[in-house]
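My current task is to audit a protein record that another person submitted. I have pasted the whole thing underneath without changing anything:
***
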Amino acid sequence: MKLPVEKPYKITSPFAMRENPFQRGKTENHQAIDFISTNDAGQPLAEAPVLAMAGGKIILDFDNYDHKGRWTDGRMSVGNYVIIQHNIGGKIYFSRYCHLKENFVSHGETVEQGQVIGIYADVGRSCGGHVHVDVFDYPAWKPVNYTNWLEDL
């Protein structure tokens, strides 16, 4: 799998236990990885392209985000998002890309690894522009720590 953002980049929240950014003093199991693109000086970009980590088929493209419901409507908590089904080594996996300002792909479309699928921004329940990417195995639909699968970390 390739990075979901262009270089230079930073991981702002790894697949691990972390302090909940919205409930200070409480921890949570963050079963995804949050990425940001940066400029050459290492400063975060508020908005940036999001890339498909592997080729596959778009099985869901939610693009009805309503910023007014950002904090009150659970359906809006991750902003717009895209889910891609992948066949990796004969196994089925799904990757979900959240906090998208805009989706550039549609349900049923086939995408290539590295293809731009959207733009991340500070949408949904977030502390700033980033893309939150989780990977699930099939058929269990359990989160997978894919950190070691990324070729260009």
Observations:
- Residues 1 and 150 are 5 Å apart (CA to CA).
